[in-house]
Amino acid sequence: MTPVQPKTQAPQSQGTGSAGRRDSLSVTDNRTGKTYELPITNGAIHATDLRQIKTGPDDFGMMSYDPAFNNTAACISRISFIDGDKGILRYRGYPIEALAEKSTYLETAYLILHGELPTEKQLNDWAYHITHHTFIHESIKKFLDGYHYDAHPMGMLISTIAALSTFYPDAKDIFNEESRRKQTYRLIGKMPTLAAFAYRHSLGMPYVYPDNELSYPGNFLNMLFKTTELKYRPNPTLERALDILFILHADHEQNCSANAMRSVGSSHADPFSAAAAATAALYGPLHGGANEEVLRMLMQIGSVANVPAYIKRVKSGEVRLMGFGHRIYKNYDPRARIIKHVAYEVFDVMGKNPLLEIALECERIALEDDYFVSRKLYPNVDFYTGLIYQSMGFPMTMFPVLFAIPRTSGWIAQWQEMLLDPEQKIARPRQIYLGADERPYIPLVNRG
Ligand code: CMC
Question: Is the pTM of this model over 0.90?
Fold first, then answer.
C-alpha cells in the first residue's frame, strides 16, 4: 500500500460527519481483544487517549513512539500553513508569493505576530518602535571584543542574544502583554545590530551604529558595509532582495528551531533565553546552517564537469546534496522558486556568481534522476540563498545569521502562541526505557 502524505491543515469537523459517519477511530488491542473508540478532532487522535489501552492494572498504558516528531502534532497553530505535496506556504492565510511580491519584512513580521495585516498607522507605529529599539548596550561590544577574530558569527549571535536577558530582567514577566510587546520590539530591533556587530568584529572593523532613516534591511546593510562615507545609501536592488529573503525566512511552522523556542519557552524562561536556544537549533547544518554547507559543497565540486561524480557519491550515501530535501516539502519548496528569481536580480547588479552553473547542473541532474525523484527531493530554501549572499559580499559564516534575523518574528509568534494556549504545559516527552534493569552497585576493587 502506498502511504499517504499527511496534510498539515486538518479538517475542521468534529463529532458526527455529514454522511452520518462517526469521527472516531476504533482500535482493537489484540493482546486483550478489547476495542476502544478514540475521538478524532481536527484530523488527529489525542495521544493521551491511548493511555486507556492497557493489558492490566499495572500496565502504564499505550504510548505512541515517534522519534523526531515525524507524525506528531505538538500544538494547534494559526501562524504558518504548509502543504508539502503541493509546495504551498502561507503566513496567516496569505500566500508567500504575494507577500514576497507586495509586502515588506516589517509588514510581514507584523502580520505573523498579530494575525492581520496592519493599517497604515499600525505599520508606522510598528516600524517606529522596531527602529527605536535597534541600539544595544555598550557592554555587549565588550563581550564581542573577547571573541577570537575568526569566531563563527552564529556562536557570537547565540551568546549575545542570551546576554540580552541579563540587560532586560523585565523580560521575565512573560504573562504581561506589555512586557511581551517590549521584548518583541527589542528582539526584532536588535537582531540585525548583534549580527552586524559580530560581522564587523570578525573583520576587525569599527562597529557602525544604526541609522534610523533607513529601512530595516537598508539599516542592516549600513551596519555591515559602511566605511568612510558620511551617509550610507544601500543599493535599492540589494536592499529589496534582502527584504524579500527576510520575508521568505520569517516563519515555517514547527521546524527544529521553532520547536526549540516553544520547548524552552514552555519552562517559562524569558524570550531572550528561548530565542538563543532557537538560534542554536538553527545553527545546525541540517537546518539554517545548510545554506553555508551548500556553498562549501559547490566549491568542493568545483566545476560543472565534476557534478555527475558528486551526484554518484550522493547516491551511494557517502554525502548529501545540501540544499535538497525537506521533512515537509515533497515538491519544489515555494521559497526556492522565488529565491531563484531574486538571484538573477542580484547577479544583474553584482555580476553572475561563478558557482551558479554548478548549482543549476546539480538541480538539472537531480530533478531527472530516479534517486531524487523517487524520494521527492527538491531544492529547498537554502539551495540558492548562499549564491545570493555570496554575491552580495557576505562571507559564508554569515549565511545562517541571515536566516536567524528574519526568523526571529516567527519564533516570537510561536512562543507567544504557546504561552497563551491553555492546552500547553512544560514540554516533556515520554521515553521507552530499554536500559539495564535494577542491579547492585559494584565496588571499584571488584570491577574487572
Ligand atoms: N541528499 C541526498 N539524500 C537525501 C537528502 C539529500 N539532501 N535528503 C534526504 N535524502 C534521502 C535520505 O538519505 C533518505 O533516503 P533513504 O530513504 O534511502 O534512507 C530519504 O532521502 C529521506 O531522508 P530523511 O533524512 O529521512 O528525511 P528527513 O525528513 O529526516 O530530513 C532534511 C530532511 C532536510 C534534514 C534532509 O533532506 C537533509 O539532510 N537535507 C540536506 C540539508 C538541508 O538542505 N537542510 C535544509 C532544510 S530547509 C531549511 C530549513 O527549514 O531548515
Answer: yes
